Amino acid sequence: MRKFFRHPKGGRFLLAAMMCLIGTSRLWAQGNYEIQVYGSDTVPPKTTMVELHSNYTLQGQRQEIDGVYPTNHQLHETIEITQGITSWSEVGFYVFTSAQDGHGVQWVGDHIRPRVRVPEQWHWPVGVSLSTEVGYQRAQYSPDTWTWEIRPIVDKSIGRWYFAVNPAFERTWHGPDVSQGVAFAPAVKVGYDFTKKISGGVEYYGDYGSLRSIAALRDQQQQLFAVTDLNVSPNWEINFGVGVGMTAATDHLIVKGIVGRRFSWRRNAAVE
User: 52 forms bridges with which residues in the sheet?
Assistant: First the structure.
């Protein structure tokens, strides 16, 4: 399964949805709860994908700022459940949690994420889908508590190479960044299949701040991850990575892992 490595409608629909959302709209910066570059695939109908996103900040922010807990030595566990609706649509739901000395295990918030993609029968030269995500995070973990994101997704496999681009646009609905309008937070993945089961590559995550006034480099969030994907079965998704922050505003060292399992409710569905 390629979802970023992994894993819908027409061109007019995608463009119209983007313009509507952007026109209304900064969502939350790289929150490090679900560190992932999306691919264009959606979960098939009558199928449920359950994933556990884990990451640990080895070197991060050490002081509490404006009531937000420091990120240093925080462990994040996120449960993502995605249900396929049609051959071109799905809905995902997230539960964010955090564990840290002095704060214990805490519920952080929830997000919901509907997504549509261009159907395969259209035979586009690249995979294209559009995700929108809305949700809440507690103020101790993000000063911007209610946020909205729209994420265009474009990907392409060329031989053993895989490329994915997610130029996300984000907006805050409740919190100090409401007045900033739309923010730009791109993500990119480049992968290479060393074997049929093992892929390696790099993932980039950025947050450049408001489109009205791009932040100075020191205030931007930019992370680069070296990652490995294990393609052991179409029903499993396994990704591990180590990331470094490249600016002063970014957590400096993070390890992450994603383990997912697909369950099909169709009759006579093969399970591996």
Answer: 79, 259
3-264: CATH architecture: Beta Barrel (2.40)
Q: Compute the distance between CA of residue 140 and CA of residue 19 in angstroms, rounded to an integer.
A: 32
Confidence class of residue 65 from pLDDT cuts 50, 70 and 90?
confident
Calpha distance 195→184 (Å, rounded): 35
Which pLDDT belongs to residue 9? 38
Tell me the pLDDT tens digit for each residue of 180-206. Answer: 999 999 999 999 999 999 999 999 999
The pTM for the full model equals: 0.85
Q: Tokens at residue 51, please?
A: 């994933």
Task: Tell me how far apart the alpha carbons of residues 161 and 237 are, in angstroms, rounded to a whole number.
Answer: 18
pLDDT at 268: 61
Distance CA 116, CA 151 (A): 11
- Which tokens go with 125? 């030269």
